[in-house]
Specification:
486 residues, alpha/beta, six-stranded parallel β-sheet, 45% helix, 8% strand, carbohydrate metabolism, glycosyltransferase activity, glycosyltransferase, GDP-Fuc_O-FucTrfase, transferase
Length: 486
């Protein structure tokens, strides 16, 4: 028997606090507040931008594509494709169309671009790319024309909708085009493929891959107005970062309203954010996210690394990787959601950050302002020539840049590709200190360096992995030259 002497108040009941499940709440602002004093006091960083890449650059791989010197046989007919999507999805279509036309010994009509409900850009091929350069670069490999001859179109009442359209499955093998498309091409002398993005398998014979490589890395050059504007901004970034030998960091930030809405992640904007995101989802995808039975788990999405990094998270990550306040950053992005609030912490961490709108005057940007693909092409150019490129959300833009940078920089992408699953756990940890966080970020940085040079595997894209289809190993190239000289 137990005896208790004294009094107890039953009005006081202990409260047990349960911490929300990992990833279910966006806690990065609280982590920033905790780490900021020690982060700002940290003087241990070396100049990260000058020491970041430890793996050999410019020594392992080099471009070795050659145009054909032989004449082309008589054409089997005309291939007309309609490219859908944004700038780099259209780029996929263009390069794949070159490969298919070459494989079928057909004449390619300059691809037509769809006016998409999200991008809403009426730009034509010649507005974005140098059409004459494209045609002349490929003239010995693929015939390319601007229009289909009148005598052929007469049979279709001059209406492309009367031309047979192939609805080709995504990632179809090249053999399908020979078996199913070529007979119709020979019969009709013109065929249409719409839509065309991603309608050709990544894995293809060397002859097909070579044409893709030629199109992407040599023939596709931005139109003179776009290229001139892009190169002007590159020069201004290098001028501003003269103290770092003209080297700057570029960041592709995907935190526009449509990206945040599509991700179904929840951040710290409260009721206003929910209202905005619900409206954006209904406007862009009409009922896709409200289908009966569909369950959306934002916490699981975050833990799976699928939430777009916020400007604050990008800043924390880069500061942890050793980039200090004196680093010049070029931010490639569309219109950031709730920009005034969301950009404030990133600008606190990197006050020298620049965007194309900050580097150029309104008058300079006016010709491109209402054309999302041309604006993206300017961003692409500035990112291409940065010392460090940071990708935060995937998509066609960083995938093409990964490959293009490998092509230009000896096979090394010089790109930071963060582990977003790991970041989700770190940003959610209230107990982590600055030194531990910094150690994790430096490890992540080193991992990106070690993965900078990667060879294409069978189902990889040559647009991200140009080695070995579009580039030669230096030693092998030298051996080959030595053998041919003997």
């Amino acid at each position: 028997m137990l005896f208790y002497m004294g009094t107890v108040s039953f009005d006081v009941v202990p409260v047990i606090k349960h911490r929300p499940a990992v990833g279910s709440v966006y806690r990065s602002p609280q982590l920033y507040d905790k780490l900021r004093p020690e982060m700002d006091a940290d003087n241990s960083s070396t100049d990260a931008i000058l020491t970041i890449w430890k793996h050999p650059k410019g020594a392992e791989w080099r471009p070795c594509l050659r145009n054909s010197s032989e004449g082309l046989p008589e054409s089997n007919g005309y291939v007309y494709v309609e490219a859908n999507g944004g700038l780099n999805q259209q780029r996929t279509s263009i390069c794949n169309a070159v490969a298919v036309a070459g494989y079928l010994n057909a004449t390619l009509v300059i691809p037509n671009f769809h006016f998409h409900s999200i991008w809403r850009d009426p730009s034509k091929f010649t507005d974005i790319y140098d059409e004459d350069y494209f045609v002349s670069t490929l003239k010995n490999d693929v015939r390319i024309v601007n229009t289909i001859p009148e005598y052929i179109m007469e049979r279709f009442d001059h209406n492309m909708s009367n031309v047979h359209n192939f609805r080709i499955k995504a990632w179809s093998p090249i053999g399908y085009y020979k078996d199913a498309v070529l007979p119709k091409l020979l019969e009709e002398k013109v065929i249409r493929i719409s839509p065309f993005a991603n309608r050709l398998s990544f894995d293809a014979p060397p002859t097909v891959q070579r044409l893709r490589c030629l199109a992407n890395y040599q023939a596709l050059r931005f139109s003179n107005p776009v290229l001139t504007m892009g190169e002007t901004l590159v020069a201004r970034m290098k001028e501003r970062s003269a103290n770092s030998s003209g080297k700057y960091v570029s960041v592709h930030l995907r935190f526009e309203e449509d990206m945040v809405a599509f991700s179904c992640c929840i951040f710290d904007g409260g009721g206003k954010e929910k209202e905005d995101m619900d409206a954006a989802r209904e406007r862009g995808w009409k009922g896709k996210f409200t289908k009966r039975g569909r369950v959306i788990r934002p916490g699981a999405i975050r833990l799976n690394g699928k939430c777009p990094l916020t400007p604050l998270e990008v800043g924390l990550m880069l500061r942890g990787m050793g980039f200090d306040k004196s680093t010049f950053i070029f931010l490639a992005s569309g219109k950031i959601y709730d920009a005034e609030r969301n950009m404030a912490p990133l600008l606190e961490m990197f006050p020298l950050l620049q965007t194309k709108e900050m580097l150029a005057s309104q008058e300079e940007l006016a010709p491109f302002q209402n054309y999302s693909s041309r604006m993206a092409a300017i961003d692409y150019t500035v990112c291409l020539h940065s010392e460090v490129f940071v990708t935060t959300q995937g998509g066609n833009f960083p995938h093409f840049l990964l490959g293009h940078r490998r092509y230009l920089y000896g096979g090394h992408s010089q790109t930071i590709k963060p582990d977003k699953r790991k970041l989700a756990l770190l940003f959610d940890n209230p107990n982590i200190g600055w030194k531990s966080f910094r150690r994790q970020m430096l490890s992540m940085r080193a991992h990106s360096d070690s993965k900078g040079i990667e060879l294409k595997r069978p189902n990889d894209s040559i647009y991200s992995f140009p080695c070995p289809d579009c580039m030669c190993h230096v030693n092998k190239a030298e051996d080959s030259r030595s053998s041919s000289a003997m």
